[in-house]
Amino acid sequence: MTDNKYKMVGNVPSDISVVRFATVRAQEIVALTKMIENPQTTKLIFQKLPCHMRRRAMSHNPNRMPRLLREAHKSQMAKSGPALKPKRPRRKYRRRPSRLLEEYKKRSSKMSWLETHLWHAKRFHMTATWGYRLPEKSCARGHRFCHRSVAEHCLLVDISYLCCIEIQGPQNAIIHELAPLCDPKTGPTFGASSFLNGTREGRVTIFQRNSFSRGPIGLVTFLWRHGETPDMRTLWIWCHPAFYEQFLVELNSSYGSNSDSLIEQTKIKITLNKGKLNRFRLRGPFAHSVISNLLDKEIRKVFIASQSPGFVAGVDVRDPRMILPQSRVKEHTSVPSQCETVITSRSRLWDASVRDQIAQVRTSFPDYVVNGRRSQLLVPGSELPLQPEEIPIPLLIVNASHESSDFVPGCDVIFPAGWATAFWLALIYSGGHAGGLKDVESMNFEYRICSDLCLEVDSNAGKTAAAEQKVKLMEDYFRKPPKTRTNFIKLATPFPFSIDWNRLLIDWGYQVEQGFTVLRDKKLLNTLSLNKQNLLSEFTFSYPHLVAVTIRLKHGSPRDFSMICIPKMDDKFNSPINEPIHQDPGAKERKILRQQHSSQLKSLAKKRKESRSSDDKVKDFCSDAVIAIHKEKMRSLWLPPSCNLKTSYVRPVIGFVTKGDFGLSEGKGIGRGYIVIRSVPQISASLVLVRNPGTSLYMWAEIALC
Q: pTM of this prediction?
């Protein structure tokens, strides 16, 4: 073994030439250097790291790489194209108060939010309408809960979306300029003596300037400031946001200005208080009981004696956060509604500087400070003593007026901006039940109240709402398969999605040039309701007017867009009457179109396949246009054709139901609608026939003018 070792050592040369060795190995060194500088591996830099240094998010976040390898990693990532959208931050980061505030500001910039939006968004279905994001209906309660709240408890609704317009100037000048917008035949106007002293709130229907024969703009409520001289008066007008812009245009034309924010002429100043005041509506027998929990004990006794309908009371209350109960309390016993008014209607709420000062207190004295001081009380849930930062908050309490024969007690509360959440929680904890837009519609349907929150059917805002509803109903209808759709042509339903009132008036012999209008003349309506049509001249029935009616059914319930018809003289009461099935001329054409459309789509698909194989991109065989044309044709064939409403059916149609359902307040089917004024003398014994859309049965009903 030692011999072999010495043999190997003997074979090794005694010296080596580096230059000669490098020259011989130059080709190998060049190949090795090239491989090191230009590696052929598919792994990226972050994939070559040791296992203990690797991170799952390295490919997305270069900062997780070691500092020496970041630049090389970024250059590799740049070669792969532009970076994708960053991943959404984790929920813990997004739910931080500062981030939430930024998100809320961003979302509320497109659609205005009420101050109570966050409270409602957690408990209600929200809807976007009139430029606001408003609560529509509760997630946990149905429409029966609304009825019980109004009938037995207290329903609370945030109506701060109503827009307030303030007019200041001489009393005579204000009334003179607003007179062309009001029709005295419809009721008291801005100059009525019962409203001028500022102790009661009035309501009036606004028209276009000196155009009472056309449709109205809408119904508004107004309130004069109490305790002012005729030389300088202040008037608040509350209008619906759906026609706010139109009403503002009429005001600008009345006072001769094009300004949208401020009008100054003849010592008259108009200020837009939109978003500067909050307003809550309470309806129910315990409404005043809920409100009284905000008042002091001394004022509470006087407040009980100040609840006559329509009376306006001005009171000052403490910060509701100081007296908020620890848990929700039940309502107290209701108080009498007819008493002598004691509380004055004066209030500091009319002063803009006072409102700004109170709004500043809300921001400088935040909730967490109040909660911290209340947590230090010896008795949990007790009232907090008067604080140095606290100032009295003025309220205007407007009692509900007699809007209809079905009087529902209640009141509206008006207070400065910035305090909506605090007062809302206080009223909820005092026994109020929260409601939304659907509950407002239900109150208007059951008791015919809150008409200022609803739109007139013959106004531009009402027509726009009807058009939007038509589009929505049509989309829901055509989303169903053809076999499950109701065939309104066979079932003789003229208007299944919206009512064409002009078509109805034309079929009854009217010349409709300026559109239909609803009769609002109090004297004429009183004469018609007393069945004294013989006292009216033929000239009265020559106008294309619609008359508001209410129908009541003993059996069954009317639906929206139901037809109101006149029975024949020989028809017996409660006798079954059916509309025969009509012919559907478009059924065969729909079948042929469906087959042609199917074959056309197959032909286009075949041509597209051939064009892809032949690389011919000149011709476009897209089927989008063909599908759109077929869709419009099929929809037109499914819709009922226009026909004479007076002669095309078994019984002549005299009107339609705009809102129909089972009335919980009366325990029977109720429908609110309109009929042609010329058909009123033809109604005998106050009986009519009602046929729901999509049915053939005529139901007997009693009819009464509203």
A: 0.82
